[in-house]
Every structure is written in C-alpha cells, then in structure tokens.
Amino acid sequence: MGRLLQSLLLLLPLAGLAQNDTVQKIIPGRTNSPAWLQKPYVIMISADGFRHDLADKYHAVHLIALRDNGVAASGMRPSYPSLTFPNHYTLATGLYPAHHGLVDNAFFDPARNTGYRMGDKKTVADSSWYGGTPLWVLAEKQHMLSASFYWVASEAAIQGIRPTYYYVYN
C-alpha cells in the first residue's frame, strides 16, 4: 500500500471528529428560584444495556459510590418495545411509548408521511415527535435549572423548552 493511502487511512478516523459538536449548550439568563436552592439535587443516570448487577460484578467503584450515597432502582420493567429511545423517553416522562409517541428507535409515521430515526439529527431535534412533559421541561417550568448529557429528546425544544445545560448527541 502506498504511503499516501496509508496516511489517508490513518487520518480517516479524525475526519469525523471535526464534524461533531462537542460544546455544551447553555440557555442564558436562567436562574434557580430561591426555594429550589434549599432542595437536594436529583441526578438520574441510565446506562443503556447496563444490567442492574454489572456495577458490583465489575467493581464500577464510582457508580457504586453514587448508588451508596443516594438511591438506586432495585430493578426495572421496561416498556414495550424494550428499546433505547422509547424506554429512555418513558423514564423521562412517565408515559408509555404509545402515549409519548416514540414507539421505536426508527419508525414511519403515515400521518406525516415521514419517519423518525434515532440517528437522524434533524428529526431528533424536532420537538413535534415528543409527547408528554419530560423531567427537564417540568423542572424548568418550575424555575429549577436542569441539565442533560445525551438524554433522549433533550436537544429538542419540547413545549419550547430545552434544559438549561445540554449537549447535542454525537
């Protein structure tokens, strides 16, 4: 293989990095109401495909420390279908997929004559796909700052609201 081709192949993985948005987004001008400053923080962590016993089995010390100093679910009964996007949005809204609208990671909506795909950034950022009120929208409506790191639908302005702090998934 020629040197030029070898160099291009070595640089190929770096080409995708330049296209990814890794900057934290911050909605300016928001503050917590004084009442919320006296309350404890809530951090919800979901590790996709991470079984309840894996932290202990593989000695994930930081996850174990978070659990031991807070709370953890003793188990989970997933919604149907038991896929990433429908279940994570169910956790955020408390609604079943048939009620919040994300019925699969990818699906066709005949009423719109178009589809939703979790890998389609334009579709994922379109708030019209998401029903219900996710936790960050509820918090922001109560003048409580929220933050999201790659949570399903958090980069869309649901009900016109995004978390105060968020990242665009890459």
Give a written overview of the molecule.
There is one protein chain. With 170 residues, the protein is an alpha+beta fold. It has a domain at 23-40 and 79-166: Alkaline Phosphatase, subunit A (3-Layer(aba) Sandwich). It is built from eight helices and five strands, in the order αβαααααββααββ. Strands 1-5-4 form a three-stranded mixed sheet, with no helix packed on it. Strands 2-3 form a two-stranded antiparallel sheet. The chain is globular.
Which blocks of ≥5 consecutive residues have pLDDT under 50?
4-12
What spatial form do the alpha-carbon principal axes imply?
globular
CATH superfamily of the domain at 23-40 and 79-166: Alkaline Phosphatase, subunit A
Which bin fits the share of residues in helices?
A: 25-40%
Oligomeric state of this protein: single chain
CATH topology of the domain at 23-40 and 79-166: Alkaline Phosphatase, subunit A
- Class inferred from helices and paired strands: alpha+beta
Based on CA atoms alone, the radius of gyration comes out at: 19 Å
- Look at the structure and give the CATH class of the domain at 23-40 and 79-166: Alpha Beta
